């Protein structure tokens, strides 16, 4: 028996009101952070995520106030279930109590609530006694003016305590978590249904049959379900999935395999299958080959339920399930197909042929669609039986017929039945066509256009194309009639239809002219089109042609056929190359959509004047030009000529006023772009990437609607147009790889710009000061703007900083790096929204980084790699939101500033990723301690040989990092924001494992003894490694990745952590150290093997490498944090944050005796005061000296000298290492307030003697 389903909501609007809400989360976790965040809740959250249950746990980025945030309230509303972990301190948080109140309010109507009594008595919660009483006593004092709020909290706690929950008393944590996860799993998967079983017919018999087919066993079984289209194969497979999916570790339903395969997108289905397992690493599935590798390697030990729907070729099956050993014991692989031969070919042990519905089930299904209930209404029984007889038990036909009769009276039923009686019962086409015949003329044309040309395209794209062809509306009406479907793929609405419905549309058009394709209105089959074009049999009835070949094909057409197609509106030809003798000399002027990729002619026909043309797409064509003269295309909105490498000129845009998108990418011989392009008011996208012959653009542009402007790798374009007015819509400006020497002076008018890319602009010597007006800018990429010998002498003028004359400019070689011809970054003050800044490979030297870089208050990612500075301004450490910082390859860099670690939440947790690879001169590292000891630090110091010149220095780094991770205490741990639970990791040169690791061995693995009844442990591990060579592969594949990974794997489980590094990069042995929170182990296990693996991949195969020389391990206990603290205090003379002589460290030494302690404090205070005053006197002397010469300059030059003064002073501050925040703020205030605004006036009475007649540079140099 077959079955089908129908949701009522598909037929009448009122059903949508009762439809279940669209959940964004399966579970909302409510808990008190200080009690459970870093232990119980962390483990629970990990297990829920591991089972594929989408769980919301408050994000550190959500800023908490005194009341619940709107983000959390929204998350509660969008969650299917809620788990409230009631712990001793839960009631002390007004935030938690507000959260609980909202949860109870939402879960009464939307879902289910599970209270977990964690180390509390449910009675204390119910009666607010014990610790809850103390908390409410404080609340009643604090909220005495809003006592009703306190009452609502009491009521909420009483209500939640009366619910059935889980008590942690006398339960180990592991069992408790398993019980909660199992409860959630069943609740969630009870609603994870592909079908609404309340509306299924034929369900009992089919379910009994399928239960026999999928009875539990340890064998891996392949099950085939086959039958004709529309018979119900997909419905049965979905029913099986819903019935048994909870018995499997991994369950996945992959629909429309045949159709996805035809589009070449099988890798998308592979990612869907693997995404719950690989999570963030799903991007490693790059193609079908790598997807196949991951399927067989990741699922071989898992019990899998995999359903492949609508498979029509063996090659499709082989991409997902070629062999049984790809899956773990008890796995079931189900395929649905129309082809019985496919089932037999793969020797599937179990096959099931789907038959048509019996009379009773057919009547139920028809009634469900015609009356929205399982039996016909009074007076319609006999008429309903007649319709069922004509449908012949085909579920899809019954569904369409019933839908067409919905809410129609008896007379209309009789008329439709009379039409049915004229159609043979066996003709499925005629049954399906009944629904088509009921459409009006407009919707008929829309339906046929979609069936022939637009199936599988985005809904918005289809609507735009249809509108351009005067086909308005209709998509939603056709969906309601079950003739079209709307599927969601990657958040895009895709227009689709059942294959039988599409075949019905093909048959409708075929019957327009059964013998001669040229007499039909639409053509999309290759043989029909070839017949018409070779034999010149076209007629004026043809309205649309679509021919898209999967492989390049040459054709010898008689293009005179186009002269007869006077009503052709839609033309799509792809991967067809017309012979030179067959080039069309005429094209229909009636065209609205023209897509002809690889067009063979140099020009379009001169008589081609398509005034109604809306879209012109001719990618990779042989076009030299479009039209010789101006042409009027008043409706053209989209023009794509990308890849037309012979194109030399563009048309005159005066006659194309509505153009919105112009794509000329890769038109490498394009020399001239018509200047009329500057006045296209509606243009949103201008793409000129890799137009390597374009030398110029209009001087000014007035494109008010422009959003994207890209000229990447236009290697002859030396100047960018000026912007004549404010452009609020321009969001992306891509100038990468152009030879521009400066940015437009009007760039400050791009107030809506979010991305500016000037990378690899080797002639660009600086950023205009106007860039500071880009308040919306979020990404600034300047990498590769380095030294250029062709830089003009007067490049200094671009920065508009005053010096008296050109000769003095030449003497001022220190002035912002201009005369040494290095890129000038300039001030970035005002870029409040900037999140990403990349100035790598710019040849920056000492002092080139602006000292006001700390004004970038939103900056998260900063890349300064491969530059020439020795130190960095201390203000970089004030970028509090910074989480990624890179100075790779800065070989002269000797020290880094102190960092205030970024992305700090209200509980003080922060994280940063620092990359200092190949900084060979780096002598010290910044202070890596985090306030409170809470945070994740990843530090990569590959080939930083200067760090280990001092004996024992590597130990101080490692111990300092360990102390950072452990100082706050093992009970307050929370996971890091990356997909591991590491507290920190560091990679640094070194060949010796610190003695603190009490388990050490030579080689790549060791055995660790575990304490009895251990369930959760902290582990710290390290490994010494070097370059190595492939193991058992003397001749590794040539396409082997140039990148290898090193991972730590406890036992036979998954790796707990790994990192990557380029092959051939190491110049000496290196040490990798990491610390992992709460690694879960089997309590029955007394030993654990820790192994390290080093490998690279070629997409499918994993090649293991030698090179792991030593490894170490330590089980971390609570007291280890105190021990490390003591070690750090004793070894304080080796401090990784500052120099040993720096006064910053003096306050840390502690003397045992009281008197010596006082003497020590006195000595330190004196030394600090003397040091501070000495530096301050030097700085103030510099102020006075420079101020003398300010008076000798005219007004315009004063500001130039003051700018020089500020730069010199801040450089001196950085050089002297004055990094503490209090002193940084003092100097900032002094420079900005006193020097810039009042210095000249304040110092005037002191300047009684005239200054010497010499330049500022010469005097300061002296």
Automatic annotation (TrEMBL):
InterPro entries: Apaf_helical (IPR042197), C-JID (IPR045344), Disease_R_plants (IPR044974), Leu-rich_rpt (IPR001611), Leu-rich_rpt_typical-subtyp (IPR003591), LRR_dom_sf (IPR032675), NB-ARC (IPR002182), P-loop_NTPase (IPR027417). Its EC number is 3.2.2.6. Keywords: Hydrolase, Leucine-rich repeat, NAD, Plant defense, Repeat. GO terms for molecular function: ADP binding; NAD+ nucleosidase activity, cyclic ADP-ribose generating. It comes from the Eukaryota. PROSITE patterns: LRR, TIR. The keyword Transport does not apply. Residues 23-192 form the TIR domain. It holds the Pfam family NB-ARC. GO terms for biological process: defense response; signal transduction. It catalyses: NAD(+) + H2O = ADP-D-ribose + nicotinamide + H(+). PANTHER family: LEUCINE-RICH REPEAT-CONTAINING PROTEIN, TMV RESISTANCE PROTEIN N-LIKE. This is ADP-ribosyl cyclase/cyclic ADP-ribose hydrolase. It comes from Prunus persica.
């Amino acid at each position: 028996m077959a079955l089908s389903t129908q949701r009522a909501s598909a037929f009448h609007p009122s059903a949508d009101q009762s439809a279940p809400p669209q959940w964004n989360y399966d579970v909302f976790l409510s808990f008190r952070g200080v009690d459970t965040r870093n232990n119980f809740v962390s483990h629970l959250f990990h297990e829920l995520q591991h089972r594929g249950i989408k769980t919301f746990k408050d994000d550190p980025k959500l800023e908490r106030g005194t009341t619940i945030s709107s983000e959390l309230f929204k998350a509660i509303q969008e969650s299917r279930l809620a788990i409230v972990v009631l712990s001793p301190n839960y009631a002390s948080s007004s935030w938690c109590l507000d959260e609980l109140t909202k949860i109870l309010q939402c879960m009464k109507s939307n879902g289910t609530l599970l209270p977990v009594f964690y180390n509390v008595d449910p009675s204390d919660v119910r009666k607010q006694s014990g610790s809850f009483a103390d908390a409410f006593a404080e609340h009643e004092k604090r909220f005495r003016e809003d006592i009703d709020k306190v009452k609502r909290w009491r009521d909420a706690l009483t209500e939640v305590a009366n619910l059935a929950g889980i008590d942690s008393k006398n339960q180990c944590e592991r069992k408790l978590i398993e019980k909660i996860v199992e409860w959630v799993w069943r609740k969630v998967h009870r609603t994870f249904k592909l079908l609404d079983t309340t509306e299924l017919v034929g369900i009992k018999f089919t379910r009994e049959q399928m239960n026999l087919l999928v009875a539990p066993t340890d064998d891996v079984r392949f099950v085939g379900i086959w039958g004709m289209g529309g018979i119900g194969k997909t419905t049965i497979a979905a029913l099986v999935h819903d019935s048994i999916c909870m018995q499997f570790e991994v369950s996945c339903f992959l629909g429309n395999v045949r159709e996805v395969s035809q589009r070449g997108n099988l890798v998308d289905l592979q990612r869907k299958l693997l995404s719950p397992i690989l999570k963030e690493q799903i991007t490693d599935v790059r193609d079908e080959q790598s997807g196949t590798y991951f399927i067989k390697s990741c699922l071989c030990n898992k019990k899998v339920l995999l359903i492949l729907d609508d498979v029509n070729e063996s090659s499709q099956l082989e991409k997902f399930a070629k062999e049984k050993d790809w899956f773990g014991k008890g796995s079931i692989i189900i395929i649905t197909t129309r082809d019985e031969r496919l089932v037999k070919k793969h020797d599937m042990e179990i096959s099931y042929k789907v038959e048509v519905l019996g009379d009773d089930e057919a009547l139920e299904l028809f009634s469900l669609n015609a009356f929205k209930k399982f039996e016909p209404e009074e007076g319609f029984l006999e008429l309903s039986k007649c319709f069922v007889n004509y449908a012949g038990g085909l579920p899809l036909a019954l569904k369409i017929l019933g839908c067409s009769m919905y809410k129609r009276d008896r007379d209309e039923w009789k008329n439709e039945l009379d039409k049915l009686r004229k159609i043979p019962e066996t003709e499925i086409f005629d049954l399906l066509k009944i629904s088509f015949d009921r459409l009006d003329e407009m919707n008929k044309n829309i339906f046929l256009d979609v069936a022939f040309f637009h199936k599988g395209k985005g809904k918005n794209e289809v609507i735009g194309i249809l509108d351009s062809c005067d086909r308005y509306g209709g998509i939603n009406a056709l969906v309601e009639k079950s003739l079209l479907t709307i599927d969601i793929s990657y958040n895009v609405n895709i227009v689709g239809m059942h294959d039988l419905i599409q075949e019905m549309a093909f048959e409708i058009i075929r019957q327009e002219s059964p013998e001669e394709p040229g007499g039909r209105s639409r053509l999309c089959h290759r043989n029909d089109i070839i017949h018409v074009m070779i034999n010149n049999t076209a007629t004026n009835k043809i309205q649309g042609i679509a021919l898209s070949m999967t492989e390049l094909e040459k054709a010898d057409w008689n293009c005179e056929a186009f002269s007869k197609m006077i009503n052709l509106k839609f033309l799509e030809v792809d991967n067809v190359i017309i012979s030179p003798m067959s080039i069309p000399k005429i094209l229909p002027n009636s065209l609205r959509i023209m897509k002809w990729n690889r067009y063979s002619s140099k020009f379009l026909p001169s008589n081609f004047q398509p005034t109604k043309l809306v879209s012109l797409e001719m990618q990779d064509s042989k076009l030299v030009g479009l039209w010789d003269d101006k042409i009027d295309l008043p409706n053209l909105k989209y023009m794509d000529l990308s890849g037309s490498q012979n194109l030399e000129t563009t048309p005159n845009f005066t006659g194309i006023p509505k153009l919105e998108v112009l794509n000329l990418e890769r038109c490498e011989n394009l020399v001239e772009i018509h200047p009329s392009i500057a006045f296209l008011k509606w243009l949103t996208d201008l793409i000129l990437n890799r137009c390597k012959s374009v030398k110029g653009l209009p001087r000014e542009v007035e494109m008010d609607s422009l959003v994207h402007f890209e000229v990447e790798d236009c290697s002859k374009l030396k100047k960018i147009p000026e912007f004549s007015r404010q452009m609020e819509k321009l969001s992306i400006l891509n100038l990468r790889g152009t030879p521009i020497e400066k940015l437009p002076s009007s760039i400050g008018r791009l107030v809506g710009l979010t991305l500016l890319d000037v990378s690899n602009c080797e002639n660009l010597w600086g950023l205009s000061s106007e860039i500071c007006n880009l308040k919306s800018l979020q990404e600034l990429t300047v990498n590769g703007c380095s030294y250029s010998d062709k830089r003009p002498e007067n490049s200094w003028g671009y920065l508009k900083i005053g010096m008296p004359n050109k000769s003095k400019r030449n003497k001022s070689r220190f002035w912002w790096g201009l005369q040494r011809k290095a890129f000038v970054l300039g001030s970035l003050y005002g870029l409040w929204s900037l999140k990403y800044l990349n100035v790598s490979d710019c040849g920056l030297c000492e002092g080139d980084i602006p000292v006001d870089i700390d004004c970038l208050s939103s900056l998260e990612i900063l890349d300064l790699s491969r530059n020439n500075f020795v130190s960095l301004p201390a203000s970089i450490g004030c970028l509090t939101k910074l989480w990624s910082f890179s100075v790779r390859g800065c070989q002269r860099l000797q020290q880094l500033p102190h960092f205030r670690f970024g992305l700090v939440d209200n509980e003080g947790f922060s994280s940063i990723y620092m990359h200092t690879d190949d900084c060979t001169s780096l002598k010290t590292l910044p202070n890596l301690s985090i306030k409170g000891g809470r945070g994740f630090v990843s530090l990569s110091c590959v080939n930083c040989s200067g760090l280990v010149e001092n004996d024992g220095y590597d130990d101080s780094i490692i111990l300092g990092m360990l102390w950072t991770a452990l100082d706050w205490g093992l009970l307050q741990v929370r996971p890091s924001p990356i997909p591991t639970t590491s507290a920190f990791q560091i990679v640094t040169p070194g060949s010796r494992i610190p003695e603190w690791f009490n388990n050490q061995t030579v080689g790549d693995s060791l055995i660790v003894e575990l304490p009895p009844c251990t369930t959760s442990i902290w582990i710290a591990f390290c490994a010494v490694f070097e370059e190595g060579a492939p193991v058992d592969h003397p001749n590794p594949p040539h396409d082997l990745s140039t990148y290898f990974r090193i991972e730590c794997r406890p036992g036979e489980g998954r790796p707990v952590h790994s990192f990557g590094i380029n092959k051939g990069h190491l110049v000496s042995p290196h040490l990798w150290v990491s610390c992992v929170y709460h690694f879960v182990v089997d309590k029955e296990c007394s030993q654990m093997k820790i192994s390290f693996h080093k490998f690279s991949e070629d997409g499918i195969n994993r090649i293991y490498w030698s090179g792991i020389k030593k490894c170490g391990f330590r089980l971390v206990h609570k007291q280890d944090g105190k021990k490390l603290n003591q070690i750090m205090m004793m070894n304080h003379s080796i401090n990784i944050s500052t120099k040993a002589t720096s006064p910053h460290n003096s306050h840390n030494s502690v003397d045992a005796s009281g008197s010596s302690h006082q003497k020590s404090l006195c000595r330190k205070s004196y030394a600090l005061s003397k040091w501070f005053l000495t530096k301050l006197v030097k700085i103030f002397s510099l102020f006075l000296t420079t101020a003398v010469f300010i008076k000798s300059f005219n007004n315009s030059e004063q500001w130039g000298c003051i700018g020089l003064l500020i730069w010199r002073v801040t450089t001196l501050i950085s050089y002297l290492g004055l990094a503490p925040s209090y002193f940084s703020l003092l100097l900032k205030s002094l420079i900005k307030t006193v020097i810039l605004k009042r210095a000249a006036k304040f110092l005037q009475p002191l300047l009684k003697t005239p200054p010497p007649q010499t330049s500022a540079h010469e005097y300061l140099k002296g």
